[in-house]
Every structure is written in structure tokens, then in C-alpha cells.
Amino acid sequence: MARPSSYPTEDGLNFTGIDFPTPVKQINKLEKQNPNLAINVFGWEEERVIVHRLSEKEGSVKRINLMLIQSKEKSHYTFVKRLNALLYDQNRHNESKHFCERCLHGYTTAELLERHKPECMGQLKRPTRTDLPKEGEHKVKFKNHHKQMKASFVVYADFESLIRKIHGCAKKDQATIKAEVHQACGFSYIIVKSDGLTHGPYVYRGEDTVYRSLASLQYHEEMMRAVLADKKPIVMTPEDWHKFNSATDCYICNESLVKTGFRNAFDTYDPNTGEYCG
Fold first, then answer.
1. pTM of the predicted model, to two decimals?
2. Could you tell me if 255 and 220 lie in one domain?
3. Is the CB of residue 98 less than 8 Å from the CB of residue 120?
4. 16 burial level (CB within 10 Å; 0-12, 13-18, 19+)
5. Could you list the residue range(s) of the whole structural domain that residue 249 is in?
6. What are the residues facing 200 on neighbouring strands?
7. Burial grade of 195 (CB within 10 A; 0-12, 13-18, 19 or more)
8. CA 120, CA 102: separation in Å to the nearest integer?
9. Does 127 reside within a domain?
10. Co-location of 225 and 236 in the same domain
11. How far is 159 from 184, CA to CA, in rounded Å?
């Protein structure tokens, strides 16, 4: 701990009425006498970083982060050069690398931190910004209607794997250590046609599982493409024609088929069976 007589007095700062060593309660006065100062004071307690003081000045004033080290009746301030390094191990999410100097909240990218700063009022002041949807954009609506249409073929597949230990790759400074790897050892899949006909199951166990699964799927892909190329003509009953001619809404998305005076519609059917869908 430095002697009070060794503290700088010709550094351009106003220390009028400030004691040395400076107690935390006098930093408010020190900030008022020096408008360009914004001082945060942290400490260490029970293996955690704690907050002794957060500056109330606006975020445009550059922060000076200090760590207060206390031992019985003695105390000493040390300058925190990299706040991110100080708080890295204190965060539950190890992927956070950018920390707010006011609320100590961690973010994974610098862009997220910059978006947070204008709304931050300091620790325990108020929550970070909540972006609410604008009027007219506050409703969630399903749009991928093509995924509601019946698929000509569906492949249901499953892989089995062995868990292998990884030796000699761990590093002490890594936040996440890879200890095991999944090695594929077998697969099984079944092909289901839209008319209910099934092909398979196709099962394999052994080496080169991933390669053999891709080779097998490519082989059966050629078979499926050949079937799709041979489309059956549409089969419509009188009842189907009546439904088609009188339809005003799409049978999938339920939106109107009438567009500026004419009906914009075409029939859909199962190319495997020719069955009319809507």
C-alpha cells in the first residue's frame, strides 16, 4: 500500500476535500469535482466479483474501473485494465466475451453489447431494452403452406453410434473440452410412398456407415425419381368437379382464391395415384 505522500497531486484533477486513501463514499464528490471522471469500484468476496460502486454518469463518459482490495483495516485500489478478463469466469455462460461496465451483463458479440448500452441504466436500475413488435406485425402466422402438402415419398431414418473417448486433445485454457465423439456404426431407414406402400427397412452395421448410408440413399433416390417421372393422370369424380368449380378459398391456407375479379386457382393431386386433393 502506497503512502499518501506518494499520491500524484499535479495530474490535472481536483482533489479538494478528498482523503487519501480515498474511501468509496468520497468518490461521488470526486466525480462532481471532475466532470470527465466516471469511476466504477469492484471488489472480491466469497470467490466472486462484487460491486461497491457504479457511476451514475451517462454512458458517453469513459469509465475507470477499479478493484478495491481489502485486508483487515488496509485497503488499496488497483486499475482494472480489461474488465472482460475480470468477469469472464464469473459468468455462467462461458461463451460471453463482452461485458457491460454498468450492469456487468455479458454478451457473445460486441454488436449485442453496443445495442444494449444506450438502454442500460446500471445494475438493478431497470431491465435491458425489450423490443415489442409494431402494430400490425404483432401476430404470428404460418406461411410455409407447401409443407402441408402431401409428399410423394418420405424417408424415415435412424443411426446408431458408439461413444469413443478422445485422448490428448484437452487444453486447460479451453472453456469447453471435447472428451467424447460419436462414431456411427449402423443405420436403418424405410421409404414410405404417399399411397401407403413401403420399401425396406434397409439395415446396415459395420464400418464406413456414413458413406454406405449416402450411397444407399442415392441408389433409392434414382428409383423414387423414376416413379415421380411417371405421373398418373388426375382422376376427378363429379363431386370433385363440383368442389373445384365452387371453391372460393384455398384448401391449404384458407385464403381467398378470388383476385381482382377472377378466380386464381388450379387443382392439385397425388401424382402417384391421380387422386384429387383440392
1. 0.43
2. no
3. no
4. exposed
5. 232-278
6. none
7. exposed
8. 7
9. no
10. no
11. 7
